[in-house]
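To close the chapter, one final illustration. This time we ask the reader to focus less on the individual chains and more on the assembly as a whole: which components sit near each other, and how the overall shape emerges from the parts.
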Amino acid sequence: MFEEGAFLKKEHGAGNVYDFSLGNPNLQPPENFRRALQNMVTSLKEGGHSYMPNTGYPHVRRSVADFLSVEQQVAIAEGDIIMTCGAAGALNVIFKAILDPEDEIITPAPFFVEYGFYAENHGGKLKPVTTEPDFTLDINAVAAAITEKTRAVLINSPNNPTGQIYSRESLFELGDLLNARGKELGRTLYLISDEPYRKIVYDGREVPGLFTCYNESIIATSYSKDISIPGERIGFLAVNPNASYREELLGGMALANRILGFVNAPALMQKVISSIQGACVDVSVYARKRDLLCDGLSDFGYEFVKPSGAFYLFPRTPDPDDVKFVRALQKELILTVPGSGFGGPGHFRIAYCVGDETITNAMPGFKRVMEKYR
Amino acid sequence: MFEEGAFLKKEHGAGNVYDFSLGNPNLQPPENFRRALQNMVTSLKEGGHSYMPNTGYPHVRRSVADFLSVEQQVAIAEGDIIMTCGAAGALNVIFKAILDPEDEIITPAPFFVEYGFYAENHGGKLKPVTTEPDFTLDINAVAAAITEKTRAVLINSPNNPTGQIYSRESLFELGDLLNARGKELGRTLYLISDEPYRKIVYDGREVPGLFTCYNESIIATSYSKDISIPGERIGFLAVNPNASYREELLGGMALANRILGFVNAPALMQKVISSIQGACVDVSVYARKRDLLCDGLSDFGYEFVKPSGAFYLFPRTPDPDDVKFVRALQKELILTVPGSGFGGPGHFRIAYCVGDETITNAMPGFKRVMEKYR
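The assembled structure is written out below.
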């Protein structure tokens, strides 16, 4: 994606290509991040770049735990946290620790493209299930998909690619389901929440805390999107302090973090984020971009569920063949991603974490392509 | 290891525990690293922490390639390099890309403890082979271990835990062997060199360049040891430009870097190391520590091969049970690692990347334990 975009930009000039293909935030990191980084680099003590425990610096894990305790309304300790190389690193560590060969991970579709790889890396299998027409959870679909091979349900809220947020009620229902079916099957069924977009929400919406909804739960997240530092690979995982196998899980995950080759989350960035817990870019900027995009596309006849969070729009394609439709947009130098890759055929993903002018200037192209289908 | 050491230090006071258990360099990063980091943080442009291609920033890969071209005496291009989360990340990426289920990786013993995990992570199997009494390569042992399941030979020179360097002649011999047997078996046999200690060598020794010895070769390395920044997780892999499947290898490894959850090597550190190619701590300090340790232990009757590189000593244990011997040292508050874990039973590893006073103050304990065996 990255390379293809670069190629087109070289050919046509960067300003003439409208690249909505990547979740690479265009906002700059907030001022307190930049200050914290400067200060940290200036004041680094001896050994500031050395190895630390594979789980991360104790003081960093403590500050993350303190922040998370408030967010989740559950007392979380330093020992419940492992610092990771982003949420992608966290998910691989979690899967390595919990999956037996052929184990299944259920995930509501559409879902983040990489999940299938992450499961397969560790001998597991991703099993997508349908959601409601507005992309909220369909608990019956999850229930129908549970087998004696199920190990976990993986959710992503706010969702990439739909921007949907799952309600507290639906998480409680999901927790109850996993609890009941886990008892029947004699197996712990985990609920894993990948939530790097938690702070990027609109219209006063909130992302409910997972840990009060279900005990056998694990959070994977990163600072990539809320602080706009995805290239730095810093995030963490948190195990619910009330999980039945809390200690075994954390032991296994610490080992997995080491042997998968992450070893530890990058030292300097651990220390930087520790001092700015809760920091976030100005989300109203993304809200404005969302409105700009939604208003424009709606006028041209595009159909979509207006996203409540993240920075993606997932409209229907007027052509049942979403790859073909995305190619038609590409001829207008508009780069988007077919929904099929996300388990959402008949749709396409627009990442609107781009400059306003990209959105504005792409509008005539979006209009022309849609007009061919009317 | 890390945690056990921390526990003993808490109990007895840090100054009274002699911790030789970890390859965590005690030297501070060189001044040019610190300056480069300061400058980079001050001058970071917009998007300085964004995603870049999964393989790394093009300009960073270019500067690595330029440096490596001189070191290896082979013209290496930006496209032959993938920036990774340290050498551990590089090895996992390489194995993910080249291993089929049940494939075997031959490695001369003693070997770095993690190799077995790295191979198993991706469905492979580590197959250790013996070395000569001075820990140099035993080509016949490698030859005898090759089967139709062999995919690669993994070497580590200077070696952890022995400090041995493999000669150019032996690498040529090894290359010839792999070439001949690969043809017979109708399979490409790779030679992978894990070389984070390349710059840490003594007595005028040099580490021969791999790429002129054998075409089907891959380098994995990091800046952890030579710049003393192991916590930052920055390294790279390089594919021999003359490798038969160069393009397929690099494509597979770029994908592996992404889907294993590394995504990319940390952005800021990529840019920092790019500007200080060739930087290294003052190796004469490690040489002094080596001599201090070797002279002392030799006087007490310890037997060992004096290391030519890295910062490890791998003496024989007077007790055939090396775990028992290491426990006896631990009672003297001297922390070392049994050789069995490295596939070198009857030995133990001393990491001497510690303060001089740790070496000096541990001497009476080393003496007392040895005396019990005389």
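Chain B has a mean pLDDT of 97. Chain B is about 40% helix and 15% strand. With these observations in hand, you are ready for the problems at the end of the chapter.
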